[in-house]
Amino acid sequence: MHCPISRRALVLAVIAGLALAAAPALAQQKTIVKLGWTTSEGAQDPYAVGARAFKERVEAGSNGRIEVQLFPNRQLGDEKPMLEGMRLGTVDAGVITNAVIAQIEPAFQLNDLPFLYASEAQARGVLDGPLGQKLAARLESKGIKLLGWMEGGFRNMINNVRPVEKPEDVKGVKYRVMQNPVFIGMFSSLGGNAVPMAWGETFTAVQQGAIDGLEIPLAVIDQNKYFEVTKFLSITNHTYSAIPLLMAKRAFDRLPDDLKKVVIEAGAAATRAQREAMTKAATEVVARLEKAGMKINRVQDFQPFRTSVQSVYEQFKSSIGPELMQEALAAVK
After folding, report:
1. Closest residue by Cα to residue 285 from 235, 240, 239, 241
2. What CATH number is associated with residue 260?
3. For site-directed labelling of 287, which of 21, 174, 260, 323 has its Cα 20 to 30 A away?
4. pLDDT by residue (tens digit) across 258-279?
């Protein structure tokens, strides 16, 4: 008489056991992607805007099978260590400045050439086309997948010495530049004193007067409070700041095919959203910086600057690749 109850109890116990066994397996199916960047998590910080847009789209597109965890303010390290981490597979993803990527793939120096792109629209057209795909393929061969050409806007000069209206105004001024030979070459060709320095040390160096200023996108000045330590902002638009969204190829390759598709589509959608947000923010940012006390001027004539930096194009032609450089120059004519 007790057998049916025992059998029922046994069946229930087996079901319960199977459910318990399945629970960790289901939990393990969620993929965590840790995404880092070095600037703030501010509402209009271009890196942060891009990171949040990617998180939102990946998590929605994967129905929660991928969780993107965000690490601003150098929590995963400076940009060079993050890139090395992606190559080794110890860092999953990041929004990284083009000039730093150029340290491991010199062809990326192309985007940092001074006064190459005349507008954001022109830069986007080149990078979303065949030339951008060639650059992405070169980076992928180094173990890093490019998911989107996000942007920081054009880079401009800020300092505590004088406004920049002509190349001579750069002479003798100590500018922090990224640890990248194109930027060092650019400021040297303009007669400036280029001081290569990691991002994490820059604010204090300006504050203490160890350097006179730096070159930086508008939104990054605003979101990282550089208006507190510099006086002059000159809209020089000398370099378009590409800040690609990157993922470790190892992390990407581990995903099943359907999630790879989700990640690629989310990268493209997040890039579009990030660019739109940057365009909208640009005019607001200039007004805010002026209100914060910065003295702002716009360069009226770029031709003297272009003439001054021609040697930089010659200097980096071989490391970028003459064909790539020619293709870019033809695309922006």
Report:
1. 235
2. 3.40.190.170
3. 174
4. 999 999 999 999 999 999 999 9
